[in-house]
Every structure is written in C-alpha cells, then in structure tokens.
C-alpha cells in the first residue's frame, strides 16, 4: 500500500483506493470529531437512522458488550442507584410513605406471605441484624416491653408453654384475659382475694393447655403455693384448693 507523510500532523497518509486521493487517518478523525461537536443534532439523526437500519447488528454488539463487561456494568448501575438515593432521599421516602399509606393492607398481606414462604431466610436475617446491632436491639425490646406489659406477660406465658411442650398453645389476647378476670369478679379463684395474675388450672408442666378455658385469675401467693398441683377432675381441683388453703392457713 502506498504511503507518504502528512504535511499537517507529520503522520502517514494512505490512498483511499485505486485512482483515489490520499487520506491521513489522524487528521480524518480530528475532522470528524470537530464535525460532530458542531453538528450534534445531525449526528444524533445519523446515529438513529443507522440503528434503525441495522437493528440486529446493534443488538448483537450490545449483547457481546454486556457479556464482556457484566461486572463493570453492574457496579456502574449500583453506583448510579446509590447516587440517586443520596441526591433524592427525601423524595424517595415521601413517595414510599405515600405508597404505603395507599396500600397498607396489601403490603401487610405481601409481608405475611413472604415471611410464611421464607421462614428460614427471615430468621437468618433477624439473627444477622441482632448480631450487628445487639445493644440497640436490646434497648428497643426493653422499651417495647415497658410500653406493653400485658402483651409481654402473654408472650412469656406462650413461650413457657412452648418450652414445656404444652398442647393447644395459642395466643390468648388481652381481651380474653380481661374476660376471664370479669367472670371471676377480679378475685383469686382459690382464696377469693384480689387477683394479680392468671393461673393455668391444669399446669403446663403436666400437659395443661395454654388456652382461655384453662386460665383463671389468681393472687401471687396462691399461685406460688399451688405450683404444679392438679388432680384432673372437679373433685381433684377442690382437693388441690383445699391443700393450698391449708398451706396458706398453716403459713
């Protein structure tokens, strides 16, 4: 191929073809770049027309580029997302709050369905969160327990029932507890004094149910004295009550 020096840049010129003039590639690139800067609209129109006429070629080039630069593109996408969140944090939060307010029930159903379908994943995530924020988690739990004493007591009763392997373990809401308290007039079912807590008539330790039908109001002293006594039938319960009353009288 014939070549000669370029008078403008000192590089090499080459013929464009048989019987055609000379061209310096470096100078040609500069000229094209200058034209694109001066004619951006025309350049965009040319690019659009070329892509429309060569759709399959464009798709194939893009596919190969994504395969060769997968990690780079993913990192660029993550960085763009992080930058957008930093710059539009308040806007994103407001939009999320608005969506949650409009779709509260659907969101709760979706969350419940996700927890049900991904129990192990959710449990592992909670463990990681607690391990990473142990002190903050403990402080939040203490605040919740202080603000919800009745629910905390019910949680402790359920936890104890499950630990003892009791049958029929169920969440007995505060409404059911209040109802049982009203049935007995707020009195201890053993001594008739003021009730302070709920007692499992058939103790959990010997297979009693953690259900409203097995709960009665009791004072702390009687509950402590009764312990895990239970004879099974009404007469047996009466015997247990008599034993407790005797112990209390003897004490």
Helix-strand blueprint:
Blueprint: E1 3-5, E2 12-15, E3 22-24, H1 25-38, H2 40-53, H3 55-68, H4 70-87, H5 89-102, H6 104-117, H7 119-132, H8 134-147, H9 149-163, H10 174-183, E4 197-200, E5 215-218, H11 220-226, H12 234-250
Antiparallel strand pairs: 1-2, 2-3, 4-5
Helix pairs in contact: 7-8, 11-12
Write a short abstract of this structure.
The chain is mainly α. It has helices at residues 25-38, 40-53, 55-68, 70-87, 89-102, 104-117, 119-132, 134-147, 149-163, 174-183, 220-226, 234-250; strands at residues 3-5, 12-15, 22-24, 197-200, 215-218. The longest helix has 18 residues, at 70-87.
Task: Write structural notes for this entry.
The chain is mainly alpha-helical and 251 residues long. Among the domains are: 105-147, no CATH class; 150-250, DNA Binding (I), subunit A. The chain is built from twelve helices and five strands. The chain has helices at 25-38, 40-53, 55-68, 70-87, 89-102, 104-117, 119-132, 134-147, 149-163, 174-183, 220-226, 234-250, and strands at residues 3-5, 12-15, 22-24, 197-200, 215-218. A three-stranded antiparallel β-sheet has the order 1-2-3. A hairpin with a 6-residue loop joins β1 and β2 (12-15). α7 packs across α8 (134-147) and α11 packs across α12 (234-250). The chain is rod-shaped. The model is unreliable at 233-237 (pLDDT under 50).
